[in-house]
Here is the input.
Amino acid sequence: MRLIAPILLLVLALAASVSLDRPLPPADFIVIERSDCYTLDPQRMSYQHELRRARVIYETLVNLRAADCAVVPGVAERWEVSPDGRVWTFHLRPDAKWSNGDPVTSNDFAYAWRRAILPDTAADYSQMFFSIQGAAEFFRTRTRLLAEYAARAKESEVPPTASDAELLWQQTTRAFEETVGIATPDAKTFIVTLEKPLAYFLDLCAFPCFAPVHRATVDQYTSIESATGRVLQRHDWTKPGRIVTNGAYMPTVWRYKRDMRLERNPHYWNRDAVVANTIECRTIENPNTGVLSFQSGGADWLTDLGPEYKTEMLAQRRAYLERFANDVDAGLARGADLDDIVGALPAPGADERRDVRGFSAFGTDFFSFNCRTKLASSGANPFHDARVRRAFALAVDKQQLIDRVTRLNERVATTLVPPGSIEGYPLVEGLGFDPARARDELKAAGYEDRDGDGVIENASGERFPTVDILYSTASPRYQNLALAMRDMWKRELRVAAECRGKDAKLYKEDLKKGNFMIARGGWYGDYGDPTTWLDLQATGNGNNDRGYSNPRLDAMLTEAAAETDPAKRLELLAACERWLFNEEMPMMPLCTYVTVYMYDPSRISGMTGHPRLEQDLSVLGRRESPQ
Amino acid sequence: MSAQPNSVAALIAVRLMQLPFIVLAVYTVTFILAWSVPGNPLENPEGRRPPAEIVEAMKRQYKLDDPVAFYFDYLGKASGASYVLGVHDRAFDLGPSLKQPDWSVNEILGTGLPVSITLGLSAMLIALVIGVTAGTIGGLRPGTPADFATQLLAIAGISLPSFVIGSALLMLFAVKLGAFPVGGWGGISYIALPALTLSLPFAAYISRLVRFGMIEEMSADHIRTARAKGLPRWKVALKHALKNAFLPVLSYLGPATAVALTGSFVVEKVFAVPGVGQHFVDGVLGKDITLVMGVVLVYSTLMVVLNLAVDVLYRFVDPRLG
Here is the structure.
């Protein structure tokens, strides 16, 4: 019967397409992420989930131990520093190998670090390398050489040839060798000379952008473009089958926005410390589907619980922990790990749960004040005056915002550096909630209600301008916060305010142009030092969206950088932060961000709650016998 | 009424000659639309920004500063013309994704397309089974409760949006009953729910086509003759009536399969199916021109080929058309 033909064809085509895509055996540990990795090239990374994966795919000179963020040996088994704190000599362990069996050499590091510094690579973190002697100068030299090359090419009748480009490249590599303080006297010795002593240099060395790459592999995908003289990098070397890694794992499958499978690197020197044999990282963008997938047993760890679920689920966890408060307290008093205690408790009842946990992140939520003298709309800017900024910060009841708006039980922040996140850095307090003082500050700045109409004016009778609050519409959190703060300012300070929501792109544009009075902000620290936070306020910093500029702050930061005694240096930085958030108030910190994971502590072990919140995928795994 | 021996070959030849012009027209219109979307694909709103000179250099590298150059350069590389002329090292190179420079559009389609095709074909198969069954039941006994019930289902299938049906199916079968896994892809169990969700609107439409055809056919002269010969009702219905009632379904099948393959975006989102649909939408939102152009080129070619396949099938099933 001819009618069957189309149906038969359909069945055949279907069978063919199904057979093309065979399922893989289940992995030992399954992670659900909201987004896929942008790249596996360590020098070009910048997203948190990417860096987390990079930490187990590549190994840096030293490692950060997830549990306490202490620096421990990595590829370098030992190191020494010169008495002046500028010259660091790393001795690479003889058994450090790439996943293809090649030894990891100091040249691999030198090559990778040069990639990171070269402007051609467009690495987000190239500035992190500028503490190395001559690195910033080399970056500028290369940028200038490229610009001159382009100018010559424009003027000349004949287009530049491959040998012109090659010549430029030789000039560049020579400049690198002559100016940059990186030396490789032999394959296992790596010497770095810094511009000036840097207290947190080892912490930087553990950052994934400082990881080595396998030079022979990457070189195959690198060429020099004759027309521009630039180094052209094809990025397909990061794909399984081609990529060579030196960390605990190597990627064996990577399907775009679908999944990535990591398998043990058989040549990794510390392979006995690696827990799971295979890790599958699945990408599920839709937060609802992610939760359903976790709940139906499809994953061991959901790294980012959707906002719709957080509040309710965290309340269910609190209910569970309250029922067993005595056991939990006793366990904590013994010094046991919270997950071990909770995992050993009886199973949760109805309307209780233990498979969700909120952690304080290494990030601070804040709103920025526009500190520029003039607004983008050319009007005078009242927020140029620190008294006005202090008044607005003092008038916000942050605890109420957390209880009623964000509702994740975040910790109120009055300063920028999350407390306890940096070893040896003292606790710094900023301004709290004090509406009476807020009104006094405004009065001192010349604003009070002179005619009794319920709105404040300055001495010449002009009303305080309507405050323009800019936020991004990417998440309802910021709209709700902006609305709540508008009401607080109206009530406590008698100013009119308007909230202006923009989508992420336009919000960023307005932020860069300084087209706001108060704007949503937020920052996650990159490395374990207060400067990753305080540098945000430095004059000319690329992320200083506030346009804040104060020579005194810049001088304080310079003074701290020159201090060689680590404890004194942290004291100086603490004094700087104290001054910033009691006097200057370029931004108003709200709270420490909370990251909410889903995982069942009775089945999973290895999570850390350290305030820097770096999870180490190589120590996460299923408990041998579920408790 | 006999088909000419070379007519199918001629049909294929003519359509294949039309193909480049159709695809070129689609390419041009999409290019103009994609280019006029404001924004810069090299900028990451949430990421840390690369310096201005780097952005400029990347713009030059990808020819994003010159629409005319981009249009011809991309067309040459994608069509294979540049390869034939020896100015490019690969044929059918759809370029790197501008948002995800570590992925070429070919790679993205290579992992996404088999998924979308599997999902689309499964959905069409389910739609055929459900639609033809429901339509036949209704068409044989119009006005009965069975007809009413299948009609109601058809209306529901057409009018309920797939994210509602999808979420309901997920909650019921995957979460409450634990019968199917949620999220991801790999094996029949992952295909079932998204394919069923995607199939329902098509099933509904097919059932209406079949029902209408059956009602018409069952009152036709040749059916009455067959009945008069004493053939049982079900045999007449399946052997004679359904054959003719099925023809409109067949011509619907071509465009429907194309829509099922390309229009599964919502279903892909709800079930986290890693198909092409979500890449395409992300591409449009992020102004990832190479990705958008690549998907459009592949899909428009696929559409033309699918329609051609259906026309060939049609002649095979109904030789009168030759």
In short: Chain B has a mean pLDDT of 84. The domain at 115-275 of chain B is CATH 1.10.3720.10 (MetI-like fold). Chain B touches chain A through 64 residues (CB under 8 Å).
